[in-house]
Design a protein that fits this description.
Layout: H1 2-9, H2 27-35, H3 43-51, H4 55-66, H5 70-83, E1 91-97, H6 103-116, E2 121-126, H7 130-133, H8 145-148, E3 153-155, H9 164-180, E4 185-191, H10 197-201, E5 206-212, H11 224-229, E6 232-236, H12 243-258, E7 270-273, H13 282-298, H14 301-327, H15 330-344, H16 350-368
Parallel strand pairs: 1-4, 1-5, 2-3, 2-4, 5-6, 6-7
Bound molecules: guanosine-5'-diphosphate.
């Protein structure tokens, strides 16, 4: 009996009693193993791991802030509070374009170039469709093969919290944790079909639109509104027979950009060509981004934009919290249910009902004080 119990306690890393531990077993490895156990890790441990640049604990932290469990809410807030003072030092870049334009190839090449220059690169995704398509972007493990195994890179697929607002909020918080972990370039990928770009613009400093030569705007599914948001348009796949076409397309887009209103940040968006697959023109893209950062830091836009983004985040958080409390309130829900039929039968008007429900909501709060 005793022997059996003894054996149970032994981990695979231990050797039999009486024999010295072999030197090739790294003591911090066995220590690390217990830190990464599937069971609950304290917020403090996750925070310290993030500050140490530990990617496993960074992932645990992001999973925590993405959690929709009420029981995780407090810990998630605590972690954000701890990490916020260490954030803000990266360049946050949004990258969009229709599927197939070469986003992941482009991100991989740009990411590896930046790592070679001594930077640390994190890649996040905003993809509200990921719940339905089971991760249409960044979900496929074969993508960004070289970047994903590089220890100076961190790649995280989109949160699948359903609503775009939820995904965008989780991505913004993930970004804060990545910055606290020392990543100094954050690339946020999104599919350029018009939905998530506005959400991305509330998160990033620079917005980059990838396009192809030879497919009209409509064919590429890019809305004019997205083009107007771009700080740089990149015509990708400018290689082989496509070089000339890409240059003509770049000139056409350059002409089109002149017709757009001047951006608030005083920056003139440009159009460049790249071959992501051959690593041609990617350095030029980084040069443009660096020029943009310098320009907007010197005219104050960079910081004021981030402050305004913080205000947007505050507004969104309040709205979301109020919405949740309202629609989760049992007394409101039952009252709403009883009014529904009367609205459908034209017996009550929806404005009066809405007002009454809101009054009831505030009354409940008062009474519960
Ligand atoms: P995404 O869907 O926008 O992420 O696009 P991918 O990066 O997955 O690329 C789609 C296809 O285009 C893949 O077969 C890539 O190999 C190819 N591709 C990406 N960039 C280039 C490029 O610069 N030149 C050429 N010729 N092909 C490219």
């Amino acid at each position: 009996m005793t022997r059996k119990k003894d054996n149970k306690k032994k981990s695979a890393l231990n050797v039999q009693r009486g024999i010295d531990q072999p030197s090739h077993i790294n003591p911090s490895l066995s220590k690390g193993k217990s830190r990464f156990k599937k069971d609950k890790i304290s917020v403090e441990t996750i925070y310290e791991g993030i500050i140490d640049g530990d990617r496993t604990l960074l992932s645990r932290g992001i999973t925590l802030i993405e959690s929709i469990l009420r029981t995780d809410e407090h810990d998630a807030h605590e972690l954000m509070k701890l990490c916020l003072p260490h954030s803000g030092k990266s360049v946050r870049i949004g990258i969009t374009g229709v599927p197939g334009v070469g986003k992941s190839t482009f991100i991989e090449t740009l990411g590896l170039n930046l790592i070679e220059q001594g930077r640390k690169v994190a890649v996040l995704a905003i993809d509200p469709s990921s719940k339905i398509s089971k991760g249409s972007i960044l979900g496929d493990k074969t993508r960004m093969e070289d970047l994903s195994v590089n220890h100076k890179a961190y790649i995280r697929p989109s949160a699948s919290l359903g609503t775009l607002g939820g995904v965008a909020r989780a991505t913004r918080e993930a970004l804060v944790l990545c910055e606290a972990a020392g990543f100094d370039v954050i690339l946020i990928e999104t599919v350029g079909v018009g939905q998530s770009e506005t959400a991305v613009s509330q998160i990033v400093d620079f917005f980059l639109l990838l396009m192809l030569a030879g497919g009209g705007d409509e064919l590429q599914g890019i809305k004019r509104g997205i083009m107007e948001m771009a700080d740089l348009i990149v015509i990708n796949k400018a290689d082989g027979d496509n070089i000339k076409k890409a240059e003509i397309a770049a000139q056409n887009y350059r002409n089109a950009l002149h017709l757009f209103p001047i951006l608030q940040n005083g920056w003139n968006p440009d159009v460049v060509t790249t071959s992501a697959i051959k690593n041609i023109g990617i350095d030029n893209v980084w040069k443009k981004i660096s020029e943009y950062v310098k320009h907007t830091k010197s005219n104050g836009f960079f910081d004021s934009n981030r402050r305004n983004q913080s205000l947007d985040i505050m507004n969104d958080t309040i709205k979301e919290s109020l919405r949740k409390s309202f629609f989760n309130s049992p007394s409101i829900l039952s009252l709403m249910d009883s009014y529904k039929k009367q609205i459908l039968d034209d017996e009550l008007n929806p404005y009066d009902v809405a007002e009454e429900l809101i009054d009831k909501f505030y009354k409940d709060i008062e009474e519960n004080k």
